[in-house]
Write a structure and sequence with these properties.
The structure holds 2 protein chains of 2 kinds.
Chain A lengths: L1 H9 L15 H4 L1 H31 L5 E2 L2 E2 H28 L5 E4 L7 H18 L5 H13 L1 H6 L22 E3 L16 E6 L15 H11 L1 E5 L19 E5 L11 E3 L4 E3 L6 E3 L5 E4 L8 E2 L1 E3 L5 E3 L14 H11 L1
Antiparallel strand pairs in A: 1-2, 4-5, 5-6, 6-7, 7-12, 8-9, 9-10, 10-11, 13-14
Helix pairs in contact in A: 3-4
Chain B lengths: L13 H17 L1 H8 L5 E2 L7 H20 L8 E3 L11 E3 H11 L4 H28 L8 H23 L4 H16 L4 H9 L8 H31 L13 E6 H26 L5 H4 L18 H9 L5 E3 L2 E3 L1 H29 L15 H21 L1 H8 L3 H40 L1 E8 L5 E6 L3 H8 L23 H15 L8 H12 L25
Antiparallel strand pairs in B: 1-4, 2-3, 5-6, 7-8
Keywords (chain A): 2Fe-2S, Cell membrane, Disulfide bond, Electron transport, Iron, Iron-sulfur, Membrane, Metal-binding, Oxidoreductase, Respiratory chain, Transmembrane, Transmembrane helix, Transport
Cofactor (chain A): [2Fe-2S] cluster
Pfam families (chain A): QcrA_N, Rieske
């Protein structure tokens, strides 16, 4: 091996001239420079101390509503004093190392990462002694049954995770049902067709989101409200009736060009809100899936696969928009059992 | 500067005399002096190069994260229970929100210095991942992952993956509109996992999205599970670094068998220790003047709202881009829905990036058949295939990143969103090939330039006119140290076709594998320029010396003008 290496070295076009001679720094040879560096570094540490005192003063003195050049004065002063002090300390220490500490390079020899043959042999011998004394090799029955119980240890580990959450059954329908009013999602007020102009889009929710029970408490609140919102949020849009090309069976799902679609993107569930009046396209701000609302919510661009589910509309006796039923299609992002759930919905209708 | 003569021995100083007792007490029980002597730790030599500092940035920003993160836990409440906000930020007063969001608002507006620490924490997180990635690129470009450091490379990959998950978990905790949008994406990703997707979604979110347990669970992951793993792996990373000793650049006196540099005590202890303060100070200044994640501007999470231009933190940008530019493929078979449009870009593709990255040292070793230890770094130009491969991977990453910002680019530059998306879809496959070829040619060109500088010297800037009127530039030989540095790398192996048959004339076993390997090796070394041989150099020296009778000798003291950065002093 070493012969081989020597041969290789011989074949090198340029011989290693060895480490270059050490060059002294100005601070090594000039006492004035040395003193200057010492003062600089001491200066940095001193200013750092002052800044840290300034930090405490600012903490106590500055009112948290005060502003400075548009920043929060507190945030700026605390950050500037702390950051400045830390930087000066760091730079000072590094300057000390670079200018004043010994700068003679040292050479350390490397050793192969592997253990030597003797070390390996000795360790192997210890290992063999231990294994033989344990009888690990001679008692296969014990050994195998131990492995068996060890592998069974995985079972409780996995089964204990069962109560992390419920099983994913029966939660795919939304709170929409026959006769529920479509209400504006800011004020919760019901919507009349006359409230909407052609080209207008309104974010809406099912009326139950704003209903109160007899004690004056919201029927849906907290987590439950968020869960229902993440499925039931809709957009109501009015287009020219002649622009709309409803597919078979959807001819009477709108009122005078007013259609209602799920607001939840079928890609990964972002609420869709960017509306292009001219093209009737609705664009998802998260991943730019684009749906054509005049053409049954069909995907025209982007990573979403399924069209936006449409909610069939009707008018109640007071002339407000209501739902005819829940969505006839699954809303939200796809999931493995979607095909089955969709089939069940189709069978129902 | 101190020589042995002027040394003061610590045991003779006043401090030393006072400390001797306690230190002796400790050594009686811990044997510290012996451990230190055996590992040679106090005077351990570290080589010096600016690029060795990148990993240090990652290390110190992690320490900054631990310190600032601990401070934030004193006030943050990881609860999704409902509360009505009534704090200093009046625009949100009276609004229903989770305790997580409300307590983050309190940290930002009511705890003095809370906003600063929050911003330092977020900036340090962005810096942590950035420094890890740049450090990894340094290691890749210089071949520092080669034997015996493959395990440390794998530890590094694990650290990076954990860093990404840790960052994402932290990003989700404040329960503001933006972090909720991120979680909604995770929900969609979980659902897209074939067959078990819905189960994973319900188990992780504790029911239907968003549920009320995801933030407490992520909090545990963010402040306990992953930090503990990160700490353990960083410890292992450092121990292996000390055991293997740091790689170094080759040069005069710097060989495969030694490491040349400054000792841990005092120089590296001071430089590295000082650098911690620099990193902390830098992130503190960023926290002071650069706003990051102003959660009060987004409002509490509401699944029916989103802001246009929603973006994840920068390190998730490539996944975001992949998700955006993926065609909308979804299929139904075996009565199951398979959402390739989400599963492929968000799960398979990042896995592919990391898998190839993790396997690369072993793939390269298989191709080159090189089983030796390497402690000298390889200049990127001297491994053209590797360098071009990394640049191709970076290009793919960059294209995905552009895809992740396609809406911002479209609005800022008034371009068509669809055109940008299509550019990325095609560019993801075409541009890496283009940059691969360009990079490889550049590397080979640089190799040739190196050979040229060894054989023909460097350009002195001295223009000579010949008797017949021609102008030429005088070349002078490089200093021998520079010549040595340029040739201090492996010679190219001789490529041989594998034998079709063994010595008995029977078809050789594994011959198909051997052929594949020979082919791979051919591609790997294709075009590489070998360094000059002894004869080449000898020949060139004569040529340079006897260059058709220069009228003026340059002499040994000549300090030529060099535009190429070659040291002028010989």
């Amino acid at each position: 091996m070493s012969d081989e290496l020597d041969q290789l070295t011989d074949a090198e076009p340029i011989k290693d001239p060895g480490l270059p001679a050490h060059q002294h720094r100005p601070t090594d040879v000039d006492p004035a420079q040395e003193l200057r560096a010492e003062r600089q570094i001491t200066g940095m540490f001193t200013v750092a101390s002052l800044l840290l005192i300034g930090f405490c003063v600012a903490y106590i003195m500055i009112d948290k509503d005060q502003t400075f050049l548009g920043w929060s004065a507190m945030n700026f002063t605390l950050g500037a004093t702390l950051g400045g002090a830390l930087l000066l300390m760091g730079v000072g220490i590094i300057q000390w190392a670079k200018k004043l500490m010994g700068d003679d390079e040292m050479v350390e020899l490397r050793h192969p990462a592997a253990s030597t043959a003797e070390e390996r042999a000795a360790t192997l011998e210890d290992l063999n002694a231990g294994i033989n004394e344990s009888g690990f090799g001679r008692r296969p029955l014990i050994r195998r049954s131990l492995f068996l119980s060890m592998s069974f240890l995985a079972l409780p580990t996995v089964i204990m995770l069962r109560d992390m959450g419920p099983l994913p059954y029966g939660h795919k329908n939304t709170v929409w049902k026959k006769g529920m009013r479509v209400v504006n999602d800011v004020a919760g007020t019901p919507i009349k067709p006359s409230d909407l102009q052609v080209g207008q889009l309104v974010n809406a929710e099912p009326a139950i989101m704003y209903e109160k029970d007899k004690d004056g408490e919201a029927v849906l609140h907290g987590t439950e409200l968020l869960q229902e919102k993440s499925k039931a949020a809709v957009i109501v849009v009015r287009m020219k009736p002649e622009a709309i090309t409803p597919s078979k069976g959807r001819e009477n799902w709108g009122i005078d060009g007013i259609l209602c679609y799920s607001k939840i993107c079928t890609h990964v569930g972002c609420p869709i809100s960017l509306w292009e009046q001219q093209t009737h396209h609705l664009l998802c701000p998260c991943h730019q899936s684009t749906f054509d609302l005049a053409d049954n919510g069909k995907v025209v661009f982007g990573p979403a696969h399924r069209p936006l589910p449409q909610l069939p509309l009707a008018l109640d006796s007071e002339g407000y928009l209501i739902a005819v039923s829940d969505f006839p299609e699954v809303v939200g992002p796809s999931y493995p059992e979607l095909a089955r759930d969709q089939k069940r919905l189709d069978d129902k209708s | 500067m101190s020589t042995v003569d002027e040394r003061t021995n610590i045991e003779d100083t006043e401090f030393g005399k006072k400390a001797a007792g306690p230190v002796g007490w400790l050594d009686d029980r811990l044997g510290l002096a012996g451990a230190s002597k055996r590992s040679h730790l106090l005077r351990k030599v570290f080589p010096e190069h600016w690029s060795f500092m990148l990993g240090e940035i990652a290390l110190w920003s992690f320490v900054v994260l631990l310190l600032t993160g601990t401070f934030l836990t004193f006030w943050f409440q990881p609860s999704m229970a409902e509360t009505t906000y009534n704090g200093s930020y009046t625009p949100l007063n009276g609004l229903e929100m989770s305790h997580a969001y409300a307590s983050t608002l309190d940290i930002s507006f009511d705890v003095r210095g809370g906003l600063l620490i929050r911003q330092i924490h977020h900036w340090a997180a962005a810096l942590f991942v950035a420094a890890m990635i740049v450090h990894m690129l340094r290691v890749m470009f210089t071949g520092a992952y080669r034997k015996p450091r493959e395990i440390n490379w794998l530890i590094g990959i694990s650290l990076m993956v954990l860093g990404l998950v840790e960052g994402f978990a932290g990003y989700s905790l404040p329960d503001d509109l933006l972090s909720g949008t991120g979680l909604r994406f995770v929900d969609g990703l979980l659902r897209s996992i074939p067959i078990v997707g819905s189960y994973l979604e319900y188990f992780i979110f504790g029911g239907e999205f968003p549920g009320d347990v995801i933030i407490p669970r992520l909090y545990m992951v963010h402040i306990l599970l992953i930090p503990a793993l990160l700490l353990a792996l960083i410890g292992a990373h450092m121990i292996l670094l000390v055991y293997h000793k740091h790689t170094q650049w080759g040069g005069p006196g710097r060989t495969e068998k030694n490491v040349v540099g400054y000792p841990m005590l005092p120089v590296y202890a001071a430089k590295a220790g000082g650098f911690f303060f620099v990193v902390f100070g830098f992130t503190a200044l960023m926290g002071a003047v650069l706003q990051i994640n102003p959660i009060w501007a987004y409002g509490p999470y509401n699944p029916s709202e989103v802001t246009a231009g929603s973006q994840p933190d920068w390190y998730m940008g490539f996944v975001e881009g992949a998700v955006r530019i993926m065609p909308n493929w979804e299929s139904t078979f075996f009565n199951y829905t398979w959402s390739w449009n989400v599963f492929f870009p968000a799960a398979v593709l990042p896995g592919l990036f990391l898998g190839v990255g993790a396997a690369w040292p072993f793939i390269e070793q298989w191709i080159t058949g090189d089983k030796r230890e390497h402690h000298l770094l390889e200049r990127p130009r001297n491994a053209p295939f590797r360098t071009a491969f990394i640049v191709a991977a970076m290009t793919a990453y960059g294209v995905l990143w552009i895809g992740g910002g396609n809406d911002i680019i479209a609005t800022k530059f008034h371009l068509s969103l669809n055109a940008i998306t299509w550019f990325c879809r095609i560019g993801l496959f075409v541009l890496p090939v283009v940059t691969f070829m360009i990079t490889k040619r550049i590397c080979i060109g640089l190799q040739r330039a190196d050979a040229n500088r060894i054989l023909h010297g460097y350009e002195t800037g001295v223009i000579e006119r010949s008797p017949d009127g021609g102008f030429t530039e005088r070349h002078a030989p490089l200093p021998v140290g520079s010549q040595y540095s340029l040739t201090n790398h492996d010679r190219l192996p001789v490529l041989e076709a594998p034998p079709e048959t063994d010595h008995n004339g029977v078809a050789a076993p594994h011959s198909r594998m051997a052929k594949l390997r020979a082919k791979a090796r051919e591609i790997y070394y294709d075009g590489s320029v070998d360094k000059p041989t002894v004869e080449d150099v000898h020949h060139a020296e004569e040529h340079l010396r006897d260059h058709d009778g220069h009228p003026v000798e340059l002499g040994d003291e000549f300090q030529g003008v060099s535009e190429s950065g070659v040291p002028r002093v010989h």
